[in-house]
Specification:
- With 508 residues, the chain is of the alpha/beta class.
- It has 2 domains: 2-219, Rossmann fold (3-Layer(aba) Sandwich); 241-421 and 443-463, UDP-N-acetylmuramoyl-L-alanine:D-glutamate ligase (3-Layer(aba) Sandwich).
- The protein has helices spanning 2-10, 15-33, 48-60, 78-89, 99-108, 131-142, 212-218, 226-229, 258-270, 333-339, 353-358, 360-368, 379-388, 399-410, 445-458, 464-486, 492-506, and strands at 39-44, 65-70, 95-96, 114-119, 147-150, 172-176, 202-206, 221-223, 247-251, 275-279, 292-294, 314-317, 343-346, 374-375, 413-416, 421-424, 430-433.
- It has a 10-stranded mixed beta sheet, with helices on both faces.
- α2 packs across α4 and α5 (99-108) packs parallel to α6 (131-142).
- The chain is elongated.
- The mean pLDDT is 93.
Length: 508
């Protein structure tokens, strides 16, 4: 936020104005979410986050009894000192922040008529809480009085998915100017909303006047929603035919995992592929008759007899492949990449560290011709890939950084799958999607995503990163839709079917 504030000031938007807008936004959320509140405790830190709290306290003072406790009576920035002076001029006198004072207020408060505003630290924290602030966090968490956090709950690192230590658990968080990385990823995400059962909950992103171009430069992460991905979904011309809308060749499945290949094919069909060809030796009993089965070449060479380039405008390689199985296509992955006539998705078995290490030159050549491959690791696969490539990144704590490291190492678009999925491109673009449902935590749903990726990448035109974003979000929305009917009992084929329904709703 400090960089954004500075850039905004250079663009003519002063820090004082931003702080005033931020504090008013927080006060507005408090009044809206907690209309029965008759008293508020506002905890103000030493920086601009505390300044936001002073403004919020000033705005709330006319509607309820406000108690302000502050870390210091001389905040560290001119804007925060000005906000404090304005609060005092309004008739509210802050008192020193003491654990005993916090505890007394919490014990005396009626949870149904009180609210706490956490404006202690905001975005600046990078280390565990200790001392007074740790005690305050514990006291807030132990009581039923709802907490509204300003920008980031105290104790949470805004840029990482794992908090550095104990932290405030908020019911509502008012994020200023833009969403913070930590609010998208578990476990940090839980700190931002819904700490107390029965209390209003949510995360609100407040526009405080920072120009959008400044925000895009300072925080380039795109937060995906249906409106964002809609322009990236391919459409069909009235005179479309199967080759003009995109063909997908699937190199997947083994005798042990025949179903994986079938699920990839279903995902591709339901996401809009015009033709799906499975390169495999067997057909799963549930295989759709629409899928073309092409046996691999006996000597492992590429392409197999009968697989023409126009049937492989996108290649999906890896789901259900067993590297130990005799004749596995993974043994010839380098040749497969060299032959690929279009875009490539590498998933599951194709993501073994030794395979990626041996094919990095091939991946870079794909990128150089304007069609970077798409790698789709889950967290465990990403960690193994990073280690195998000699890279250091904490996938759990810093998923964006991990995805970025893999992009840089492979020149590929990386889809780092999880409850929140990251899409990162070699050119620096990155996006996150939190669409989905816990029901997606079942075998085969990743295979469906691989197929959907293949279908959207095979469609003519479009940018690989944008099409990958669209597939990821479409798959998440499909999981949500399937879960509305089936809950955690959904299976991967349910998700594939829901993809078609969600896409039809977005593009009637």
């Amino acid at each position: 936020m400090a960089e954004a504030d500075g850039r905004a000031a250079a663009a003519g938007v002063g820090v004082d104005a931003l702080m005033d807008a931020a504090g008013k936004a927080v006060a507005g959320v408090v009044r809206e979410r907690f209309p029965s509140a008759r008293e508020a405790l506002v905890l103000c830190g030493p920086g601009n986050n505390g300044g936001d709290g002073y403004v919020a306290a000033r705005e709330l003072a006319g509607a309820m009894a406000v108690t302000v406790l502050e870390v210091t009576d001389s905040p560290g920035t001119p804007a925060a000192r000005g906000a404090r002076a304005s609060l005092v001029a309004s008739g509210v006198s802050p008192a020193p922040l003491q654990l005993e004072a916090v505890a007394r207020w919490l014990v005396a408060a009626d949870p149904g008529g009180a609210v706490v505003v956490d404006a202690l630290l905001g975005c600046g924290l990078k280390r565990p809480l200790e001392g007074l602030l740790l005690g305050v966090a514990r006291a807030l968490n132990a009581e039923e009085v709802p907490v509204v956090a300003v920008d980031v709950p105290t104790g949470v690192d805004a840029d990482r998915a794992v908090p550095p230590g104990e932290h405030v658990r908020a019911d509502v968080t008012v994020q200023l100017a833009g969403a913070k990385v930590a609010s998208a990823f578990h476990p940090a995400r839980a700190a931002f909303s819904g700490a107390r059962p029965g209390c209003p909950a949510g995360v609100v992103v407040a526009d405080i006047g920072i120009p959008q171009d400044v925000l895009a430069d300072v925080s380039p992460t795109l937060w995906l929603d249906a409106q964002a991905v809609l322009p990236w979904l391919p459409t069909r011309a009235p005179d479309a035919h199967k080759y003009s809308v995109g063909t997908v060749a699937v190199v997947a499945g083994s005798r042990r995992y025949l179903g994986a290949a079938e699920l990839v094919c279903r995902g591709a069909w339901r996401a809009g592929a015009g033709l799906v060809t499975l390169v495999g030796v067997e057909r799963h009993p549930s295989a759709w008759p629409e899928t073309v089965l092409t046996p691999p070449a006996g000597d492992g060479s590429w392409p197999p007899p009968g697989l023409a380039p126009r049937a492989a405008q996108a290649l999906v390689i890896g789901p259900g492949l067993d590297p130990e199985e005799a004749g596995s296509p993974l043994a010839g992955l380098a040749a497969l990449l060299a032959w690929a006539p279009g875009r490539v998705v590498l998933d599951a078995g194709a993501l073994a560290p030794d395979l990626i290490g041996r094919t990095r030159d091939g991946l870079r050549r794909l990128a150089e011709r304007g069609a970077p491959a798409v790698l789709t690791p889950h967290a465990g696969e990403a960690a193994r890939l990073l280690a195998g490539l000699g890279l250091e990144a904490d996938v759990r704590a810093d998923p964006l950084g991990a995805a970025r490291a893999l992009c840089d190492a492979t020149a590929a678009v990386v889809v780092l799958k999880g409850a929140t999925t990251v899409v990162a491109a070699p050119d620096g673009r990155q996006a996150v999607s939190d669409a989905g449902h816990p029901g997606l935590a079942s075998g085969g749903t990743g295979d469906v995503l691989a197929g959907a990726l293949g279908a959207l990448l095979a469609a003519p035109g479009g940018d690989v990163f944008e099409r990958a974003c669209a597939a990821v979000h479409l798959h998440g929305l499909a999981g949500e839709r399937a879960a509305r009917a089936l809950g955690v009992g959904l299976v991967a084929s349910d998700v594939a079917d829901a993809i078609a329904r969600v896409r039809a709703e977005l593009l009637p």
